[in-house]
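Board notes, transcribed. Complex of a protein with manganese (II) ion.
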Amino acid sequence: MPRTISHDAYTPRPEHRFTFGLWTVGNPGRDPFGDAVRPVLSPSYIVEKLGALGAYGVNFHDNDLVPRDATAAERDSIVREFRKALGASGVKVPMATTNLFGDPVFRDGAFTSNDARVRRHAIQKTMRAMDLGKEFGAETYVFWGGREGTETNAGKNVIEAMKWFRDALNFLCEYSIAQGYDYRFAIEPKPNEPRGDIFLPTIGHALAFIYTLDRPDMVGLNPEVAHDSISGLDFSHGVAQAIEANKLFHIDLNAQKPGRYDQDHRFGSEDIKQSFFLVKLLEDSGYEGMRHFDSHAYRTEDEQGVWDFAAGSMRTYLILKEKVAAFHADKEIQHLLGELGKRGAAPGKRISYGKDADAIRNETFDLDAMRKQGYAYERLDQLTVELLLGAR
Ligand code: GCO
Ligand code: MN
Ligand code: MN
């Protein structure tokens, strides 16, 4: 029996900017060992369901919407029907992207394949996918290079591959400008899977690469929880660095046990504390972009499980957002943070050579006192845990 949607403080609404991909809720549960377990859902049906659940938008790869072998007439009729579904549900398309990984032609990469014809084809496919995204008003264009990488270093010159990657992004930035598309490009780093090792594996690699492009202002990041967790990194540190550099253009929310294959589980279903600090970072920093759930329901689930998964992702985000407010309102937590603030942790306490050179050169430090004083992080963390567990 379908569950009824509850209307309480955690009911998602379009202004929360929650989005899903056609490929996420539409994932039929195929894995390397087993067949699909759920029927394919049509894009229009997905949009209708997401609208009813309170999502703001839906994103897609070109081929999630228009199959690879569609004729021009089929493309037109698919576009027409999808537009109708969007209009009826009020669901928006804030982001679009290209499938540069499914077709066997991309087995050695797309922009970095050793075959120059493949590299040119990848660019052509992306130009057409950018056209498609713009037909629905997409503003962010994601580049996830799932096939850009290697299993062996014997066959690829990685220095050349970086140049090919850069050429492709420079080319596509010019295309966006020439067409008047005004896209914001967001690179999505991932360390491995489907390739043994993927190029631009972390937020840091991608960030450094961006500043080597012709138009670094147009290009930012789409970091994903699961991808940094695979590498055992603290995701919110990478996201904070992206925010500080004004490069957080989009974000993929999900959950992942460290060190495993890409699990793409429901947001908040693994590391609650990590998820909390991520929501806190996004909310406290005033991030205004989409909260995109790049994840899918467990393979055990039928269609109802998929909508439980989608509703649960948004609900958990909103519960954690409320916990963020509770953290800010908690007197003891705020007292401890206030003590840190007095010691110099409050924002804005920065130095510069011009202003401080003499003072620092001549300052006398009470090193004994400085060595003895603790930071009360044990207490602060325990209070955070208790708050998350509902004991405060
Ligand atoms: C993955 C990636 C993808 C991308 C998607 C949009 O690990 O499979 O996260 O889901 O996010 O292709 O670019
Ligand atoms: Mn992923
Ligand atoms: Mn992703």
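The chain has 15 helices and ten strands. Residues 144, 188, 224, 252, 294 surround manganese (II) ion (ligand 3) (CB under 6 Å).
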